Inverse folding.
């Protein structure tokens, strides 16, 4: 049965390529990727296109060259990645590359190696990723990201976000909207994701026409590269989301207010059973096709995280939404997010087998597919008769922190594939809200898409450490083994890393930093310290390794973050016992940690707030827009909105600059408030929102860039903290 489904879906994918009129030169595209990745070695590789029913790659020696066969560009790119990792001990990631050790003469392949994909689809991205990580990217960032996607074997990326300003602008113009009315509907660059999910409209805007044109040109370039490699980008579908103002222009249409999302007025919903729906859908898809060409896959989620369905025949609405897609693309497939209790069963009843693919977004934490009844998102009927993709969602809001569910990544897709309720599994993917952290998780998840069985986590990690750092090292192997069984093995349904008190609004009791997060440690922090000690021991061997330096910075950051929690508990206890000297000493040490952590994190662009703010400023097309985008960027990672709401600190980051200029002043205010109370002086609780808003509106841009020697600072911090951390944990 599974084999038949795989064949069916592969045929659908192939038909999609043909229907899009694509005739890409996959060999040339793979060769060019090799040139970008390992310049000077591109002629050492031969890429050979050999059609096959299922995605595969084959590595073999061809004289003095390495031959990589595959059935499309993505398959060949995955083959290149496999060769670099497992023959050259080299790797690529967001968090440092390890390519400098590739020898002039490439390692030979003793015997041919052929590997087939276990699933036809390898999905990637989340609407939120575009806002939390990619909001201000240009072609330089996107070219590297598309290369990384191809190397992982990703063939179904969400491309619904960057393109929508122009599509909606053109659509609304044809509906009689003025420019002012259109720009009032479009959100700022930092908030586009929630607009397209039907959560808000207009916030953070307006954007300029020049920016819309820039994004349109960028999207065309991105799509061209993806198609050249054989990816099938997922476009945004029209599912009924419309401006609230549409009611004024078409008062007879069945347009429903959708209420609020986190205090934002949601866009309205046009009933797909109303004749106006088809008219607008046809305009929308025609404009999208004119700008960006054909597509086979379309995403869109009616009633995402709320909304109103009263008076709507939801089953019939689903049929109408799909019919509109298929008027522009006869074999269109609807991609829906399996999130909370969506898509609702009544919606899916309006679709037949093969009409849709459901992304089970938290399949390893809160699966919907039916095989784990204890899941918060459990659906007894699973995904019914619909095809679905097993996804990992290891990060919310782009928060900083080590986190994972290694055993679930290593076995979850295999368990689902062989379970009766998982029989329509057709892919494996990752849908993080933010990227640029924990690269080990994504390597493991996408490796599972190229194997039929579960993997041994400890053995896999030894190979990971080898290609991550370029040389075998028993200390690093031991460190990764410890981490895999502690902080990277979360057994609860928490999504994303344990939140850092450093980033929290100060309080005596902190259970979470963001409204839906968790700050309570589930692992033994002393074991993470052991991993730190062990990895630190290899610092001289790997002092010049960018990947090692990144990982040691990240691990040091985690150790300090965990330690501050222990100090905070002790400081609160001292305050409650009116022990002013002890509170003074402990709280001062907390502030020391924040300063030291800031100094360390400011050594790397991945952990520096100026990287994010600099991208925002660069994306603006005029001085006013640059300032607006910087405000978008600063607001999104702090207050999220313009007023004090439950969204504050949802996308908090342990980043250099942000630690020093916002989180440190917040904690200093708390310490001073507590000291005043201990002295019996009149005191008011600090206005934390006021501090946050002041940082958002400040003109500091952090354009000086990261600075300092990461290893030298870690050596200093290790000597300063290791003894007291060990003693503190021993006494707990």
């Amino acid at each position: 049965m599974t084999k038949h489904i795989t064949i069916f879906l592969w045929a659908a994918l192939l038909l999609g390529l043909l229907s899009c009129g694509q005739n890409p030169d996959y060999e040339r595209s793979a060769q060019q990727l090799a040139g970008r990745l390992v310049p000077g070695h591109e002629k050492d590789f031969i890429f050979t296109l050999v059609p096959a029913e299922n995605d595969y790659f084959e590595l073999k020696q061809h004289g003095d060259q390495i031959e990589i066969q595959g059935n499309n560009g993505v398959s060949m790119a995955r083959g290149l990645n496999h060769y670099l990792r497992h023959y050259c001990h080299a790797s690529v990631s967001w968090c440092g590359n390890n390519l400098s050790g590739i020898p002039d003469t490439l390692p030979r392949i003793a015997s041919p190696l052929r590997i087939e994909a276990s699933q036809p689809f390898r999905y990637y991205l989340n609407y939120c990723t575009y806002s939390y990580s990619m909001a201000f990217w240009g072609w330089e960032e996107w070219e590297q990201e598309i290369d990384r996607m191809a190397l992982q074997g990703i063939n179904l990326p969400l491309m619904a976000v960057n393109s929508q300003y122009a599509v909606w602008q053109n659509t609304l113009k044809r509906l009689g909207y003025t420019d002012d009315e259109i720009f009032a509907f479009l959100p700022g660059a930092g908030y586009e994701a929630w607009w397209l999910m039907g959560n808000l409209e207009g916030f953070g805007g307006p954007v300029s026409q020049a920016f819309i044109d820039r994004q349109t040109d960028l999207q065309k370039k991105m799509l061209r590269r993806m198609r050249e490699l054989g990816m099938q980008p997922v476009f945004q579908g029209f599912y009924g989301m419309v401006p609230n103002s549409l009611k004024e222009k078409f008062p007879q249409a069945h347009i429903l207010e959708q209420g609020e999302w986190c205090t934002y007025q949601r866009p309205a919903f046009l009933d797909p059973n109303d004749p106006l729906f088809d008219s607008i859908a046809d305009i929308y898809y025609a404009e999208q096709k004119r700008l960006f060409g054909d597509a086979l896959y379309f995403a869109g989620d009616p009633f995402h995280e709320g909304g109103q369905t009263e008076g709507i025949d939801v089953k019939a609405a689903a049929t109408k939404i799909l019919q509109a897609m298929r008027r522009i693309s006869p074999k269109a497939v609807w991609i829906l997010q399996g999130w909370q209790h969506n898509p609702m069963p009544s919606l899916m009843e309006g679709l037949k087998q093969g009409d849709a693919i459901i992304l089970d977004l938290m399949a390893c934490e809160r699966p919907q597919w039916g095989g784990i009844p204890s899941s918060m998102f459990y659906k007894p009927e699973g995904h019914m008769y619909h095809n679905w993709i097993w996804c990992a969602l290891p990060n919310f809001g782009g928060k900083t922190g080590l986190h994972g569910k290694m055993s679930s990544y290593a076995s979850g897709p295999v368990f689902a594939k062989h379970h009766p309720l998982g029989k329509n599994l057709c892919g494996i993917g990752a849908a993080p809200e933010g990227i640029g952290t924990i690269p080990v998780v994504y390597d493991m998840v996408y490796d599972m898409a190229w194997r039929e069985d579960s993997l041994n986590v400890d053995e896999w990690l030894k190979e990971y450490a080898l290609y991550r750092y370029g040389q075998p090292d028993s200390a690093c192997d031991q460190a990764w083994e410890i981490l895999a069984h502690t902080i990277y093995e979360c057994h609860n349904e928490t999504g994303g890393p344990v939140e850092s008190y450093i980033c929290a609004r100060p309080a005596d009791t902190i259970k979470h930093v963001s409204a839906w997060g968790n700050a309570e440690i589930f692992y033994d922090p002393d074991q993470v310290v052991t991993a730190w000690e062990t990895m630190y021991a290899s610092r001289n061997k790997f002092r010049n390794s960018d990947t090692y330096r990144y990982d040691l910075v990240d691990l040091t950051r985690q150790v300090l973050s965990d330690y501050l929690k222990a100090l905070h508990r002790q400081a609160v206890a001292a305050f409650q016992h009116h022990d002013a000297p002890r509170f003074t000493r402990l709280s001062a040490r907390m502030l020391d940690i924040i300063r030291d952590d800031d100094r360390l994190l400011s050594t790397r662009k991945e952990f520096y707030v100026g990287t994010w703010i600099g991208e925002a400023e660069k994306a603006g097309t005029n001085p006013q827009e640059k300032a607006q985008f910087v405000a978008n960027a600063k607001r999104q990672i702090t207050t999220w909105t313009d007023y004090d709401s439950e969204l504050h600190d949802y996308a908090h980051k342990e980043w250099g600059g942000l630690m020093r200029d916002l989180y440190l002043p917040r904690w200093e205010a708390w310490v001073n408030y507590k000291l005043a109370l201990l002295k019996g002086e009149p005191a008011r609780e600090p206005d934390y929102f006021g501090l946050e808003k002041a940082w958002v509106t400040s003109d500091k841009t952090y354009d000086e860039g990261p600075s300092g020697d990461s290893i030298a600072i870690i050596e200093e911090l290790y000597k300063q903290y290791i003894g007291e951390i060990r003693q503190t944990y021993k006494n707990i």
